[in-house]
Design brief:
By secondary structure, the protein is an alpha/beta fold. It has nine helices and eight strands.
Length: about 220
């Protein structure tokens, strides 16, 4: 049986929704140099064939870098490319059912928005990590539910599984999100739109070793 990847504290890279596969792959390769904890392939607009191509190419790059790759929302795509796990939202199915479907060798992450009760239920059903947000307003999901920083502290007291924060996170704001209790920071634009994705990703990674490094 495949051993389930470890979820360690750090940067949780989420890919931008770019149709240009070559551009996306180059940016992912650069960001992976910065040693993120996880990478999520997320595409809401591309057609299935393009998603399959992109996910396969990015997974190969993640394998080379030793970084686990999660697929957002799409169980069939996760299976097709043999990714390391699946991330689901509130409309993507029952957590306990999907825990069994995903399998013991893969990760399962669950979006919990501003709902600690949902996170507790997800953890009890076998989620490997839960995500709260949007912590700050986000151009990627402008209508997203808002989640206060205080929720992260409450979640750390109530949950054993790792906690991810998502939504509008940038490096100047990152230290306060980690201090509030986040063990993973899910980031898209602040890394992929930076002139130096590798350096930006590495700066996030230093937060857990030395919070003053990005102050």
């Amino acid at each position: 049986m495949t051993v389930r990847p470890e979820v360690r504290p750090g940067l949780y890279l989420v890919t931008p929704d770019w149709a240009d596969t070559a551009r996306l792959e180059r940016a992912v390769m650069q960001a992976l140099v910065g040693r993120p904890a996880l990478l999520q392939y997320r595409s809401k607009q591309s057609d299935p064939a393009l998603r399959l191509e992109q996910a396969g190419r990015i997974l190969r790059r993640c394998r080379e870098a030793g970084v686990a790759m999660i697929v957002n929302d799409d169980l069939d795509l996760m299976r097709a490319v043999d990714a390391d796990g699946l991330h689901i939202g509130r409309d993507d199915g029952d957590v306990a059912v999907l825990r069994n479907v995903v399998g013991e060798g893969r990760l399962l992450g669950v979006s919990c928005y501003d709902d600690l009760g949902r996170a507790q239920t997800a953890e009890a059903a076998g989620a490997d990590y839960v995500a709260f947000g949007a912590i700050y307003p986000s151009a990627t999901k402008p209508a997203a539910t808002s989640a206060a920083l205080g929720l992260l502290a409450n979640a750390r007291c109530e949950l054993r599984c790792p906690i991810a924060a998502i939504g509008g996170i940038s490096l100047p704001r990152a230290a306060e999100v980690v201090a509030a209790g986040a063990q993973l920071l899910a980031v898209i634009s602040d890394v992929f739109e930076d002139a130096d994705p590798a350096g930006r990703a590495a700066a996030y990674g230093r937060l857990w070793a030395d919070p003053e490094a990005v102050a």
